[in-house]
Structure formats: C-alpha cells, structure tokens
Specification:
alpha+beta, four-stranded antiparallel beta sheet, globular
C-alpha cells in the first residue's frame, strides 16, 4: 500500500459516500486510477466494508457490546475477517499474537442477536476452534 492508497483510505474514512471524482481531486489522481485502486484495496482485504450509522445506533445506550476471542489454530485470518465483516454488527477485528488469533468487537441490539451472531460466527470457524465471549460492562473514552 503506497501513499496514494493511504490518502484514498483516509478520504473514504472521512466520508465513504463521496464520489470517486471528489477523492481523485483530493489525492491528485485520475478518477479511473482511484476507482481501480479502491477495487484493488477491497479485493486485497485492506478495505473490508462500508457501514451506515443511524441516530438510534449512536444514541441508544441500551445496545450490547462484546468481544469474541477466537483461537482457530493457524487458519488464514484475512479471508475469515472478510466473512466476519459481512455481518453489520461486527465493528472491528484485531489480529493478535499469542494464544488468541483474533478479537472481534461486536455491537448488537439485544442478547438474542448476540446469540444468533455467535452461532453464525461459529459456523465459519474450523473444527476445534475456540470462541469465548467477553461482554463489555463499561467503557471509558479518552
């Protein structure tokens, strides 16, 4: 990933709905070059997806947040993460060192959806993989 890719990602993080033309202006490349780079970044797993946040999601303190701690014994993480990011409740995935291979941060509306999501994630993991759920009880922000 070069500096143009980094600038494109930064522009998309600021506003993922902006036009390719607008991004091209910001990064000093042609629309075609920006479009091709975005497709390549998506295909390579650098861009995992796009999401919509609603007022209810950002203002509703009643949502449940949790981490799935996944140990899968050497499975390639990038394709697995691409599948995980298809679930709108999956907010972030962190590849880690040590016994845990992946931490998956999820934000769900209720316990039933957490259970359903956990079941779906379990089906994606190889036999013998271990998933532990850690509920977020309280958060502090900088």
């Amino acid at each position: 990933m070069d500096s143009f890719d980094q600038k494109i990602i930064a522009a998309l993080q600021e506003n993922a709905r902006q036009s390719v033309s607008s991004i091209a202006e910001q990064v000093n490349l042609s629309r075609t070059a920006v479009s091709e780079r975005i497709k390549r970044l998506e295909a390579s797993g650098e861009i995992l997806g796009y999401q919509v946040l609603t007022a209810a999601q950002t203002e509703n303190g009643d949502r449940l947040k949790a981490y799935f701690e996944i140990s899968h014994g050497g499975m390639e993480c990038a394709p697995f993460v691409q599948e995980l990011m298809k679930f709108p409740e999956v907010q972030r995935c962190h590849g880690t060192s040590g016994d845990v291979d992946l931490l998956v941060y999820v934000d769900v509306p209720n316990m039933q959806r957490l259970h359903d999501l956990l079941s779906a994630v379990t089906k994606l993991t190889p036999p013998g993989a271990r998933i532990r759920t850690h509920m977020i009880m309280r958060e502090w922000y900088r």
